[in-house]
Design goal:
By secondary structure, the protein is α/β, with parallel strands linked by helices. It contains twelve helices and four strands, in the order αααββααβαααβαααα. It has a four-stranded mixed β-sheet, sandwiched between helices. It starts with a helix and ends in an 18-residue tail after the last helix.
Length: 300
């Protein structure tokens, strides 16, 4: 089993190199609609604004149909549990949901880089900014501060296709020497209430019906979408974004998922779709092999 995972990891590495070579050779016209050349930033901004509008519209529709709670609880303990995955960056006045393998790792590297730049300033400083110190988890604040930060800071959520999140968790050795099929069966047996943060549905972790995110960033398009976000927030200036390799990983997983998907039984596929049904209903993953309209319920 160690050999099997090592073999898959080797295939992913080789595929990344090959796809990187192909992407460098592609013309701008052949790139994905969201991967727009920086020389055409006005089009990029308009396109991404429209995409953000559509993502938030879909999310609002989901919340209107399924959410029982749409406001932060008034009890400190309950509120802390709701925002337990939310991180705070006070210097840059940002809140973001920290979920592994969604692109948040590269995002945090970028924030660290910007924090070290003395010339990084905000276009619209928040007067209450100085009150909150250097704490990094929203759950550490009192209820009044939580509410103030949620109202004033820019809020970002990173989303990734559910099956790719499972593959990532498996490839990073979280399967305890199980085959992928056994790993999936273990996840289904444990259920969402006992799920690890690496594969627990994003809706349960980031609580997008309570936290009104300003940006919904899709894994596979981090470079263009984060660039747009930073420009609008007035944070980028002359600083260059680090290279995000999520688009290459997305292409590689598109090939890898077919092989791993074929290992699962029909019952497991349907159960996985049901497991992630709220993520499918809240976000747009039309190319997912797991996606099936019959598993998307419109009620709790």
């Amino acid at each position: 089993m160690h050999f099997s995972r090592l073999f898959l990891a080797s295939l992913v590495f080789v595929s990344l190199l090959w796809i990187s070579h192909l992407l460098r050779k592609r013309s701008p016209q052949s790139q994905d609609d969201l991967t727009v050349e920086k020389e055409d930033l006005s089009v990029t901004f308009d396109t991404l604004l429209h995409i953000q509008h559509l993502r938030k519209k879909k999310l609002r529709s989901f919340c209107g149909q399924t959410a029982k709670i749409t406001e932060l609880p008034h009890n400190k303990q309950e509120a802390s549990q709701v925002v337990s995955s939310i991180m705070v960056n006070n210097k840059l006045q940002l809140l973001y949901c920290k979920i592994p393998a969604t692109g948040v790792e590269g995002w945090e590297q970028l924030l660290e880089m910007l924090e070290e730049k003395e010339n990084v300033t905000l276009q619209l400083p928040v007067p209450i900014h100085q009150q909150f110190g250097t704490q990094m988890m929203l759950s550490q604040y009192n209820l009044t501060s939580m509410e103030a930060l949620l109202k004033s800071y820019t809020k970002v959520i990173f989303i990734r296709e559910p099956f790719h999140r499972l593959i990532s968790a498996y490839m990073h050795g979280l399967a305890d020497d199980l085959t992928f099929k056994e790993f999936v069966q273990y996840i289904l047996y444990q259920g969402s209430s006992k799920a690890s943060i690496e594969w627990k549905p994003l809706v349960s972790l980031c609580r997008p019906c309570i936290i009104r995110y300003d940006y919904i960033i899709m894994f596979g398009f981090l470079g263009s979408e984060v660039h747009h976000l930073m420009q609008r927030a007035g944070l980028l200036g002359n600083n260059q974004l680090p290279e995000f390799i999520d688009s290459k990983i997305r292409w590689t997983y598109g090939w890898l998922e077919e092989q791993m998907f074929s290992e699962l039984s029909l019952a497991q596929k349907k159960q996985l779709c049901h497991f992630f049904r709220f993520d499918f209903a809240a976000f747009h993953f039309p190319n997912s092999l797991l996606w099936d309209p019959t598993c998307i319920v419109r009620s709790t």
